[in-house]
Amino acid sequence: MDLAFSDEQDMLREAVRGLCADAADSVRGMENDPKGFDDAFWQGLAAMGLTGLMTSEALGGSGMGLLDAVVVYEEMGRSLVPSPHLASSVVAAGVLAAAGSDAQQTEWLPRMAAGEAVLSVAWLEPDNSSGPTGVQLTARAADGGFVLSGVKRHVPYASSADRLVVLARIGEAIDLFLVDPTADGVTLTLQPTVAGDTQYRVDLDGVRVTAADRIGDAGSGWATWSTVMTDAMVLVAAQAVGAAEATHALTTEYAKERHQFGKPIGSFQSISHYLADGVTAIDGARVLVHRAAWTRDEGRDVASLAPMAKLFATQTCRDVTGVAIQVHGGMGFTVECDAQLYFRRAKSWQLNWFDDDHLEDLIAAAVLD
Predict the structure, then answer these.
(1) Same-domain status, 237 and 197
(2) CB atoms within 10 A of CB 207
């Protein structure tokens, strides 16, 4: 594996970093906001071709690889600027690209790539696991279509979505459906979250969809979903690496400037060793994420690498941001301090897009098999 980035990837990093820096002032204002993201930032991503990041060029996208996307997501994690990019441009677009009909792909992917349409994903359910057994929302065949009933939680940016990709159970099988969030029987309720990001509870009470709204063949839903989630795991991990780097940098700077007993607090062993442990873990997480993305781009199996990257990187981010709170002392918990912003988002990334229990199951299965 070549650990050096190309000139094009370095230019991409600088461009995304600049765009994120321009939008950084919106981070706090977007917390607990019903929409949850800034239109100008979203259109900036679209102008750079990033809303169609990994969508094929034939369907209006940029056709980039996963390692290119890692570059983008490290910068998004560094800045914390909220957007529906992961849900729409990666997961929903990935589902449609992998299993959507020609009509579905033609209708949605070019518009999504242009930043003109946003799709979200409705997957997790109350008190249920991240795995396939956690999908209990039902789809019942009726009048040539389907009737969906059940509850989804932690649906990102649902109120801004043109469609939701919904996982539903038909007997023992799982299917994917496109659902209009404004359809009869759909109720959206904004949820408070530890990160203050925009997530919704979505209640579906007898919601009717057509046969043409099913994505992929009958019973293929979980296979499609788990394949696309491989990319999502790596990119959430990349986001966590970027956030951990940014948090470590601001903590290190504070440890140099803050004085106690006539010297910088960073000169005390208890602080300096925390910072040494942090930078070591960050470097390890970065290499694991880059290796997973490179392996994926090479067409090789990442059944264990992708969950390993997500598990380790999000835990590293959680540890580094926890240390940042400790080093900053009482002010670390105040809304004025950036440390708490990273701390709360680190925990959210750890819980979402496959939690630790499911990641450990995936890794164990790959090891034991």
Answers:
(1) no
(2) 25
Q: Number of C-alpha atoms within 13 angstroms, CB side, residue 119?
A: 30
In angstroms, the Cα distances linking 264 to 25, 59, 247, 254, 273 are 30, 55, 18, 9, 14
Which residues have C-beta within 8 Å of that of residue 243, sequence separation ≥ 6? 77, 78, 80, 317, 321, 342, 345, 346, 349
Question: Residue 289 is encoded by which pair of tokens?
Answer: 């994420």
pLDDT tens-digit map of 104-131: 999 999 999 999 999 999 999 998 888 9
- Answer yes or no: pTM beyond 0.70: yes
Q: Domain range spanning residue 232?
A: 222-368
Rounded to whole angstroms, how far apart are CA atoms 161 and 56? 22
Q: Are residues 206 and 305 in the same domain?
A: no
- Cβ proximity of 100 and 44 under 8 Å: no
Confidence of residue 334 (pLDDT cuts 50, 70, 90): confident
Closest CA relative to residue 28, chosen from 286, 334, 269: 334
